[in-house]
Amino acid sequence: MAQRSNRQRCDGGEVMHLAIIGCGQLARMMALAGWRLGATFSFLAEPDENTSGVDRLGTVVKRTPELTGQALFDALGQPSSVTVEREHVDVELLKTLQPFCLVAPNPDAILVSQHRGREKDFMAAHGIATAPYKVATGRANLKDAVLHIGLPVIIKTCEQGYDGKGQWLIRDSQALEETLSDIPDHVECVVEGFVNFSKEVSIISARSSSGECAYYPLTENEHRQGILVSSIAPADVPSESTLQQADKIANTILEKLDYVGILSIEFFVVGDQLVVNEIAPRVHNSGHWTQSAGIASQFENHIRAISGLPLGETKPKTQAAMLNLLGKEVDETLLNQGNLEIHLYNKSLRPGRKVGHVNLWHIDRAPLVKQLKELHQQVYGDD
Amino acid sequence: MAQRSNRQRCDGGEVMHLAIIGCGQLARMMALAGWRLGATFSFLAEPDENTSGVDRLGTVVKRTPELTGQALFDALGQPSSVTVEREHVDVELLKTLQPFCLVAPNPDAILVSQHRGREKDFMAAHGIATAPYKVATGRANLKDAVLHIGLPVIIKTCEQGYDGKGQWLIRDSQALEETLSDIPDHVECVVEGFVNFSKEVSIISARSSSGECAYYPLTENEHRQGILVSSIAPADVPSESTLQQADKIANTILEKLDYVGILSIEFFVVGDQLVVNEIAPRVHNSGHWTQSAGIASQFENHIRAISGLPLGETKPKTQAAMLNLLGKEVDETLLNQGNLEIHLYNKSLRPGRKVGHVNLWHIDRAPLVKQLKELHQQVYGDD
């Protein structure tokens, strides 16, 4: 079936027009990066989705049952490529667009990441280390799985969980029965053995429709209650081999999934080994620092990758960090610091909600660590 | 008359909404900078104005005779501030908005810059050096003025000229009669004596609605046929006192005009002295490098200034440069260079048309100069 060329340049009126499934801050920031490259955008919104982040940044199309295939392609303005800002999308709908334009990442790659069990099976099939795991549904099966894996465990719903939702931590057998009773009886879950990690890191990797790959340095991440609070890069890891593992794992996944776009992988660091926690078929919160490090950001590289353009620089010349603004308004004094950049998402303030982030950078790590800590204190106080 | 507060933050749903008169690339880039700070935008377009640069980046409002005052304020979405991307705007129309929101820069400041004679009179009144000049209309008066100033001269229309249009260079008396016959007989002109300059430089300066001022380093500019081709900063000038003069002149103009926003001043360098060429009440082509120097760009600082936010860092930590893309499409190999950033305007390609620019940076000047030269060769060949 005919595929529309995904390489369009600002040449005699031809404009690169791209569509994004989703209207959140990741869509917003991909569009802002793409605008600079001369692209225009349309966004597909669920009927009840908040579109404040992208309203007036492109054409917002509300999803209806009739909008599939050609009709959807036309409503989206006949994009050269369609991409996603979240893994939880209707893969069947995406497949109906494939005769008309590039869908990147491809629906099968997205499918893998939509289900934690499927994702871990994929890793196992390709020799990539994950936490010990077992998929189970229903309390009896879950209990068996827990005893098989061995406490402590984290139980997660296989589908739809994010930012710490749909997860249950069971440290000891006393908590076991009580926690199991909290878990819906019919929902497929994965039981994961605890990984005794020293750090959590992630890698943002890119693969273009031409097959070209690029890797950002490992990022070190701090979470609180399952939500990312801050990141710093390059990560401080004990061994060079750890860094090489990350690139290798990323490369394997990119190639095996015939992946196009940005792929994000979260790891646990155990000694000098990396254990995959989860992947996301999209740009990632832990990669926002790439906007302010004098390189092509993850957002820009995603646009380049899905448009068949050469990938941009991924090796930063400074250290960089990011602090999430979770339910916190911006203090204008933050704007006064020279090596700091604020990114706001135009979302209304709610406790714990991701309303923006602050990027900072410094040539040396120690001062950056110090500044990040002070910034955290300034924004969150002693919380 | 009640003034709406121009300080709005992303706080509980309140969003900073700004309006820009104009839909060109300067409006586009101000909006892209402002989006990151959580602002939204509307744009006022002349009836026949090309809006491709900003379509879907905000609400585009087509100007009609009924849209003045309250009607215009409402059509623009009740912005907290209204600003401009060009000096050639309807100042009377801007004044009708002043009861409803901040108009920055103020209409009187814009008026000064709209007329070359008025602009030079303003400089003279405040002890700021310009080229020797005389305003005249009609060939007889122009001839008198030319003889009074002394050849060689440049004759420019007092209003509406830009990028080298509406200018006539007269080197010697043989060219005088012939060139004078080219100049429309009824149009007010200014006759400027040649300035024997070593370089052309410019300064991008900022003054916030709070009165806070900030200055970017001097930029060195190369023109061809009156159009900016490339810039490099900080400018290489023979004396520290030259840099201080620039800040002092900028400060004088900012204060005397009670100016809010970015003010751009172009100078001739004569020995270690600065002679003002012209000013622009807006962001400027020679300041695009500020987007890629790890500081708050001129676009961001303009948004901050008109919103009463603290001004951002203006002192870059690297050398930076910019090459205009004049009627040239982007060669994708340009995307491969690590210290280079492309900005496209979504304008269709026409000979000599500003369709985008490329920013580049380096810690040292010599390699940057070399790279800029090679880039110029790559884009323009031996043109």
TrEMBL record, chains A, B:
Residues 120-307 form the ATP-grasp domain. GO terms for molecular function: 5-(carboxyamino)imidazole ribonucleotide synthase activity; ATP binding; metal ion binding; phosphoribosylaminoimidazole carboxylase activity. Keywords: ATP-binding, Ligase, Nucleotide-binding, Purine biosynthesis. Its EC number is 6.3.4.18. It is an enzyme of class 6 (ligase). ATP binds at residues 116, 156, 161-167, 192-195, 200, 223, 277-278. GO terms for biological process: 'de novo' IMP biosynthetic process. InterPro entries: ATP-grasp, ATP-grasp_carboxylate-amine, ATP_grasp_subdomain_1, PreATP-grasp_dom_sf, PurK, PurK_C, PurT/PurK_preATP-grasp, Rudment_hybrid_motif. Pathway: Purine metabolism; IMP biosynthesis via de novo pathway; 5-amino-1-(5-phospho-D-ribosyl)imidazole-4-carboxylate from 5-amino-1-(5-phospho-D-ribosyl)imidazole (N5-CAIR route): step 1/2. The keyword Transferase does not apply. GO terms for cellular component: cytosol. It holds the Pfam family PurK_C. It catalyses: 5-amino-1-(5-phospho-beta-D-ribosyl)imidazole + hydrogencarbonate + ATP = 5-carboxyamino-1-(5-phospho-D-ribosyl)imidazole + ADP + phosphate + 2 H(+). The keyword Nucleotide-binding applies. Belongs to the PurK/PurT family. PANTHER family: PHOSPHORIBOSYLAMINOIMIDAZOLE CARBOXYLASE (PTHR11609:SF5), PURINE BIOSYNTHESIS PROTEIN 6/7, PUR6/7 (PTHR11609). NCBIfam families: PRK06019.1-5, purK. Homodimer. Catalyzes the ATP-dependent conversion of 5-aminoimidazole ribonucleotide (AIR) and HCO(3)- to N5-carboxyaminoimidazole ribonucleotide (N5-CAIR). Catalyzes the ATP-dependent conversion of 5-aminoimidazole ribonucleotide (AIR) and HCO(3)(-) to N5-carboxyaminoimidazole ribonucleotide (N5-CAIR). This is N5-carboxyaminoimidazole ribonucleotide synthase.
